[in-house]
Amino acid sequence: MERSVMSVSLLVLACLVSSAAAQSAENVKAYMVYLYAQEKDWDMNAAHVYCAPWDADKPYEWRSKYNWTNFGGPNGPIGKDACGKCLQVTNTATGDETIVRIVGTSAASLNLDQPVFDQLDSDGQGQVAGHLVVNYTFVDCDPKPPGPGESNVTSYFSDDYNPIENDWTYPSRAFCTALDGGKPLEWRKKYGWTGYCGKYSSSNPEDICGKCLKVTNTATKDSEIVRIMDTCGLEALVLDKKTGFDPIDTNGEGNAAGHLLVDYEFVDCEDQVNSPRLVFSQ
Ligand SMILES: *[C@@H]1O[C@H](CO)[C@@H](O)[C@H](O)[C@H]1NC(C)=O
Ligand SMILES: *[C@@H]1O[C@H](CO)[C@@H](O)[C@H](O)[C@H]1NC(C)=O
Ligand SMILES: *[C@@H]1O[C@H](CO)[C@@H](O)[C@H](O)[C@H]1NC(C)=O
């Protein structure tokens, strides 16, 4: 009896593993298509996309959150089942990466709307060849932050990461290296770095690695966006000295005391592109 229960759960597990493994593909072709999402103000009916009957009534915020793509496999859901889902797409030639939302079907693997095709084609070779060669993986369109944040917590600094000197290479012993160390340079250097050991820390790197924090110096109200790339042992944060700590220590009291008192909140890294942030000197 026990044995059959176990074999059933092993079967379920095997199915889960294989369906998870089937949600991505490597080295597939992505062509360009003119969906005119932006020009049509993200109106799925006006753009005549396949998924319009199911998704055209979704809120504007939802429809305009990501650029659009048509999708045709080979791995993961296709047709109606794929509508509204999100793919992280990486140009294998350049490492350029972005998230797109599926709005239709495709005879090829992907048909990317023109603006996002161009965005991924930073070396122009996609235009030349007529397609990009990409890796894709299905991702959560609305990942939940681990928690809201905390007020008036201590942040120390680290002199050891040295991202600027090391071309933003993740230190081999950092908590997030296995998960994020292989991400493209543009991604790794987009924000200053921090180690995180606050209230919402986790022993699972997937829960916190790569997430962004808005950190505010409570004394001066200077704030910035930083990305979690390590864990830490003390208090809440260990900001990288040059790219995280110094930019908000504008009165020098943090350097004098060896720490800052900060407020922090989890924010969506992608939404922060145009938000005011301090830029460390590179
Ligand atoms: C769509 O792609 C364009 C071109 O890269 C970019 O400027 C824009 O921010 C993207 N829109 C969204 C919603 O991601
Ligand atoms: C694409 O996937 C292949 C096979 O897994 C991998 O070797 C390669 O590094 C990936 N490319 C990028 C840019 O992530
Ligand atoms: C912040 O924390 C410090 C040290 O723990 C404390 O002295 C101060 O009163 C706190 N400030 C606020 C506004 O809670």
From TrEMBL:
Residues 23-143, 148-271 form the Barwin domain. Keywords: Disulfide bond, Signal. The keyword Disulfide bond applies. Residues 1-22 form the signal peptide. InterPro entries: Barwin_CS, Barwin_dom, PR4, RlpA-like_sf. Gene3D superfamilies: RlpA-like domain. The keyword Iron-sulfur does not apply. This is Barwin domain-containing protein.
